[in-house]
Amino acid sequence: MNTVRTLPIRVVPVDGEAIESWLEAIAHRTHTAFGDLLTAVGLSPYNGMGTTAWIVCLNPDEVATISTATGIKPDVLETMTLQHYSGRAVRIKPDARMLSRAFPWGRGRGSRFCPACLETTGGRWQLRWRLGWTFACTIHNCLLADACPHCGAVQRRRTHIGDIIPQPGRCSHPAPDATGRSPTRCGADLTTAAVAVFDSDHPVIHAQRVVNTVLDRDTVTFGVYQTVPQPGLNVLADIRAVAGRALAYATPQDLETVIPQDLLGVYRATAEPSDSRSGPARTDTKPGGTGTGRDCRGRSGSRCERLGSPRRGVRRGYAALAGDLLTGARIGRPRNEHRVG
């Protein structure tokens, strides 16, 4: 076990925060390079910059040293890694501390984000945003973004670079034209990412609430599972199976009869993301198609220059709508009642 000392400044995690976000907040507050902060709490700088093992699961020694350095209780630290969702939303390979890609729709790396949540919390990231099943924010009633509005990079594929001080809420990916061993960071304000906003009772927001309930429970006992309760993992697999069939066999005309028109418009207006490591393809079209609309903070604006909510996330919303069939929830309202705003 590494010998560590108590840090002179304490930073309390926000509710639901991911461990790397909290560590970045400490580094920012103490004006410390991220690699030095990792050393101070007993994490290897090499592992911190090269892998995401401790984001997935902390080993007992890491839990003990981080707790000693920060004063945060071990049981709280364990809720800040993806281990918190093990057996409910993800499967973890225990020997390698890696996510199993076999589980339906799990994200290997990276995180979506709600721009308004980043703004209100000072750039703190929710652990739940790393899950493939999280596609919308039920606080701000918007789809999540997963790309920088400036450089187009998918966020948090790796832990923060170790030789600079983190800037919460800013893109830490290399700038688009930067070169060299230590390229200049993009630094774009992620709170400006454009996302589609809906009414609080919109079916896609309701679907996310249903999925969140499944994620938070070991056993699901509502909908078709009232008589035969099932583990959450099985319910998510059922949702994926139903949604997969719907998306594979439904015609565009079929989808139009059950998918809210504003959500369908977001899907059609969004280019498929590229396979580039730098992130999804860019588009000059605002989510939802033409005219003006609201961003995640409710302000009116013109067409956005880059889309923060890629097509893949919208498909997750479609999937959850199909999952409503299993949980007994309604799919939608009359078509003319669906609107953004």
Automatic annotation (TrEMBL):
Which residue intervals define the domain TniQ in the entry? 8-144
Instruction: Specify where the region named Disordered lies, as residue ranges.
Output: 270-311
Q: Which InterPro entries does the annotation name? A: TniQ
Q: Which superkingdom is the protein from?
A: Bacteria
Pfam families linked to this entry: TniQ (PF06527)
- What segments bear the compositional bias annotation Basic and acidic residues? 294-308
Q: What is this protein called?
A: TniQ family protein
What species does this protein belong to? Candidatus Mycolicibacterium alkanivorans
